[in-house]
Records
---
Amino acid sequence: MKLMAMVILAGLAAGQVWAADGNKGGKEIVTAYIWGEENVPFDVRSRALQTASDVFAEIGVSVKWRHKRPAEGQAQREGAVAICIAGKTGGSSQQTLAAARPYEGSAITIFYGAMGWASQQPQLARMVFAHVLVHEITHNLQQVSQHSRTGMMKERWTKEDFAAMQWKPLSFEPADVELIHKGLARRAEQVAANNTALVSSTTR
Ligand SMILES: [Zn+2]
């Protein structure tokens, strides 16, 4: 009971409402800061964000997009995801679509420039961008560095995967979904602990 109250308090403090118990049909809410959006054509990014939201909604996770760069440390404190969209390609490899740092829990960089090959086909560009968003946010939420054999969390999508995703988003494997929910629960606890520390340090 005490823990639940803490989790709710933490959610309110962070401007979010976490489902206190993910299994009661309630939705878990994730805040995602996103900036650098000017590097992606409007039509591509707006539909891609919608698709990404839909994919997460299917597994009971609601994404609240915040279109700005968070202050230093803010995303971490709030348990939010932070996504920077770079127009360039990803340094060492032209094919690197994104980089996530799962253990740091907050920063993702997406290299939209590396998706140039898709830019002549708007539907493909939208879906590739949506899949990269979902894939990287998932790494971030799971807080583990792992890939699956099929679908959304595959390490490298094939030509067939790119063709398929234009019609219907790729799926998560059941283990991916389980790791997301576990990661979200851990994240909520961390935010609660952070806020408790904050409250005790400000009331001292
Ligand atoms: Zn990956």
---
Amino acid sequence: MHEFSIASSIVESVLEFAAKNKIEKILEVRLLVGELMAVEWEQLRFCYGAITRETAMENSSLEIEQVEAAVSCPYCSYRGRPKYWEDALAAFPIVTLQCPQCGMAAESTQGKECAIKTIRYMA
Ligand SMILES: [Zn+2]
């Protein structure tokens, strides 16, 4: 499960940070998650809650900030927001890596990040 592995790598690095700095209680972790990572936030929160139980991170809040996707096209040099494929069956618009200007395959320049932005803890 995608969300589970993301949650465990986050928790692992925060706990490592806590151990190194002798922090007993983590209060909040703020994440930057790219739109292209297709992370289900509820799933991620659920996994986070489960993994942090009985650790220094227990009951800490997980804040997620989304990084919008951006593409750059090697064919027509378009740069900007990607094209969205609005599928009636999908719950939310799906990002495609097709250039909105010329329709060729574009490259993502932003939206694949998954990083810890800030950690709040009790000193
Ligand atoms: Zn293009």
